[in-house]
Amino acid sequence: MNRILLFLILLGSMFSSRLTAGNPLIPTVYSADPSAHVWPGDERIWVYASHDQPGTNTHDTMLSYHAFSSSDLVNWTDYGVILHLKDVKWAISHMWAIDCVQLDGKYVLVYCAIEKGTGIFRTGLATSTRPEGPFTDTGFIQGVEQGQDPSLFVDADGTPYLFWGSGGRCHGAQLTADLRAAVPQTHVELTAQLPDVFEGPWVHRYQGKYYLSYPGLPNRRWPENMYYATADKPLGPYVAQGKFIPEFAGRAGTNHGSIVNYKGAWYAFHHSAWVSDGKSEVRNLMCDVLTYEDDGRIHSIVPSREGVAAGGAKPAPSRVTVQLEAENGPAACGELGTTFVATERPGYSGAGYVTGFNQRYAYVSLMAQSAQARQARLVVRYAASAGDKLNKIMVNNRLIPGPNTPPGDYQKCFPFPATETWRELDVGIVQLREGDNYIRIYAFEGGIDIDTVRLEPVDP
Predict the structure, then answer these.
(1) The Cα angle at residue 246 between residues 292 and 314, in degrees rounded to 5
(2) Is residue 3 included in any domain, yes or no?
């Protein structure tokens, strides 16, 4: 009896710790390789990450990227797919680690993929006028061979430097001002300066020194640990300083991350396999406080279940809201069916809204990804200025009946009350499945404009 009681206590303790944990940082979608940034004039922190397909046993299935933002490191917005392989004409596979920079009023996604015809990893560029995308591919950087796991560091004088590495090698080079090519004669191989280096370099600056952090293989054996080295110049030479995230319980075979200062504190973003219970091909984002010794050395990090918080918030379970801009549907694996994007009605979010629901069954469809089957609250931001309208909302091929829909009603329409300004329609709790989830709003009586679709967390 005592053994049974002890088992139940331990089980309850484990379950409780998961409910109250601030790590994993983003438990709702499988993501890895976080690149964290704070953009000028924006109080939020932004994280750009690769995406792992649920149920996979390989990294060959990585096809897209996500963006996340938060103002306190506890409450997060997931903007869905911001760039997909289907929209990169030169690439055929392996959309792995990414970074992002701000240049000339635009946001530039720096990513990697395997080129069609050559099988070579290239470092691609994609641009957007908004930090959440969607991003449009503009080709790959010239003069960079096997450009896997790129990161782009812009120094205080505005000079851009690209770092990349894979298979036990690490490289760096200065880029042209437009980021389109490596500057001849600036390429350096940093491998010999970085013990156990394998891939994924990231550079940040602290107290006048340049810190290059990277995943390495101790004694050439998996799993990866996180190491760092320091230098007086961006391209080195670098002096090895050791590990700052050694192996830890629940780690994935890989690790990869970024280091950033946000609201006066330093944070290390990385990934683990905590959500998937150790399945290394389906990873989740993590974040831990990073601190320095007086001499600049980084304290070793043991990932914390408590997690992090900023701006006066307290560490708490991450709350992730998926916000899908209707006008971004085609770029994010959705579709516009005879509808179109407009900007005439003021007050919309993002870059516009979707209109044209004047033909029965005209639609907008949006795709949201989920690591595991779960429930969420569906909220639609819309306008309908010509009287109450009945239209249809479908989630994963199932119509959502309106609150007063008679039992057995075939049409299962949902009422959109008239409103001259944008209004939020609480559709209720919906069931999401593991993987890709498709939300379709389509016309029955028409007369609506759709701005955003949100999936809000449901408290346990």
Answers:
(1) 55
(2) no
Residues 335 and 313 in one domain: no
For 339-351, give one letter per residue: b (16+ CB within 10 A) or e: bebeeebeebebb
Which residue range is the domain that position 394 belongs to? 322-457
Q: For tokens 């009945």, what's the residue?
A: 390
> What number of other Cβ atoms are within 10 A of residue 12's Cβ?
10
Q: Which residues contact 256 (CB under 8 A, 6 or more apart)?
A: 32, 33, 34, 97, 149, 199, 200, 215, 224, 270, 271
What single-letter DSSP state applies at residue 445? S
Burial of 14 (0-12, 13-18, 19+ CB in 10 A): exposed
Confidence at 440, pLDDT banded by 50, 70, 90: very high
Answer yes or no: are the C-beta atoms of 74 and 309 closer than 8 Å: yes
Q: What is the pLDDT of residues 356-369, one digit of tens each?
A: 999 999 999 999 99
Q: Give the chain's domain count.
A: 2
H helix intervals, 96-231: none
Residues 237 and 374 in one domain: no
The verdict on 311 and 327 lying in the same domain is no
